[in-house]
Request: fold
Amino acid sequence: MKRIGLIVNPVAGMGGSVGLKGTDGNMYKKALEMNAKPITPERTKEFLSYIKNIENITFFTAPGRMGEDYLREINISFKVVGSISENVSAEDTKKIAEEMVKKIDLLIFVGGDGTARDIYDAVGLKKPVVAVPSGVKMFSSVFAVSPRAAAEGTDLKEEEVLDIDEDAFRNNKLSATLYGYLNVPYIKRLLQSGKEASRTDKHTMEDKEGIARHIIEEMDDEILYLFGPGTTTKAITDKLNLSKTLLGVDAVFKRKLVGKDLNEEGILKLLKKYNKVRIVITPIGGNGFIFGRGNKQFTFDVIRRIGKENIIVIGTESKLRNLNCLRVDTGSLEVDKTLQGYIKVVTGYREEMMIEVRC
Amino acid sequence: MLKKYIKLNMNEMPYPPPIGIINSAKKGLSNLNRYTSQKSLEMLKNMLSDYSKAPKEHIILSSGSDLLIREMIHLFSKRRKTIVVDPTFFPITQAAKQFAPNTMKIRLSEPSFDLPISYLVDELNEQSLVVIDSPNNPTGNILLKGIEDIVETGAYLLIDEAYYEFSGIGFAEFVKDHPNLAVTRTMDKAFSLAGARIGYLIAGKTFLNDFLGFDTFLPLPGVYAAIEALKNIDYVKKNVNKIIDERKRVQKEVTKMGIGVYPSNTNFLLIKTGVPDAARELKKAGVLVFDLSNQLSSEFIRVSIGTKDENNFFLLSLEKIINQNSFK
Reply:
């Protein structure tokens, strides 16, 4: 019998659709005030549904919504470890993980970069870890590419844990720090790579300028453009003399800013107002995600309404060079499947690359 | 003192041509004060026509096939969308960057590196020039198993078949039926004539006028060597078979090291070493391999199949850098 620990961070990822870039610290309360919905239940259930031979596993889990509730639903045997406070926090994650670590062969956690950091503090390299992506940022390479991918785990390998300074992230700066290493089962094809820093060399800057020129030349005054996060999308708005949020979603119509740092609700409102809408996004360097990491404001509902044909992907060749494919993990397998296949990426002025999207 | 390297970075044939071919080149050298005669050029074209089963009038000679690729892109990309694969033979990328006003690359992805033909064909709704190397360099796989889907759209299709003799799959004989098809080949690789630089284009009618007079100034020693080589190509078949056997052996040994090595239809292998800056590390160990950091990532290398001793030295060096890396 394999002994597996399960810890779910019930608040992870809630900030994404409301545009909060994370739920670390007090941001959880803010997310609640903004009517953010929990996303970990679905991600946890999806993950559990893909585990093979679940009957051969003895689960050790955190109480209530930190794990117990999900295992109870699928009617399998499990043991509850420790207790948690009413308003769960990072301390609960650490405390449970510490208590659990001696009893298990493998630890599964559902959360984001912040959760990965807490797990690292408690577990370090003592036990292997499977990370089910359910946060807002998830730039660490410890995460599997999807809950389904996370369900396939066997051999061991150390993978780095990155964490983003959320305060800097909210203030329009992206700063990733190598926090430590966790042991993860060796399922390389199913693990994402960590985020790569934005390049600022001469060629890359020229390519970004070329991309901006290309997109601006193709822009149609009848269409609303939703620009996703990143320095590549920002190069376009910079060229239009618009002040874009680096890490948020901004809306442009007739070359004017009509929405800034939009959350899902804000985007849906604009979709009602404008008939023709296009998303302009860039993959995350290093792991290739175009949806599902760092731009959770584009929920699967938003993407479904806008449609694949209205998604413009942009990215420099230097960024694409290290990517075998692009990835999506919108939270809806059905939407992910509609995005599968080859998509064109604008890589420069009148230059495109067709690249495969996998989920 | 200059360091001596094992040279496995240019996909050259490690075996020199037979002595008769070298003597023919020498004969050309003794006439270096003369231009190559039209008669010699016509003879070479006739022989290449027989060899490739394509009409002589469709053959254009040049110093290396990369020049012909460059010229094709220069001449025919102007009012067209140029579609190339990525990664590809570097001169293709370079010429597209330099001359083509509107380009689209199609990314070949691991693990198969296959070309998504249906997506390519969907892109041919406007005037296009498609340039594909098959087998692909550096992945080594065959990208085109048929051409109808592409040429029937009216798109111009240029296939670089530099490794035709290793793959056995080529489309040269179809140029007479498809005016919008062209194929480049070379005697650099399988014929052991890299130093002679004999490349040739087998072009459909659409392209021929633009190449009038293009082959006039090929150097005499190279032309004599090529003619002699085509008179008896048994050595080519023998060497190609030797290389293929060695390639299989090297592939098997690399697989045992637990790293990625991809099926090949050429005289080289694409290897995913898992070692950052692998080409640089191998150079330190005394082996030159082709660095793919500009096309894939720095853990990828393309290694030519050399002699048995060269390959053994490469395998030892590769194992060494992999072991060193695992302790980092």
Observations:
- Residues 234-256 of chain B form the longest helix (23 residues).
- Chain B is about 40% helix and 20% strand.
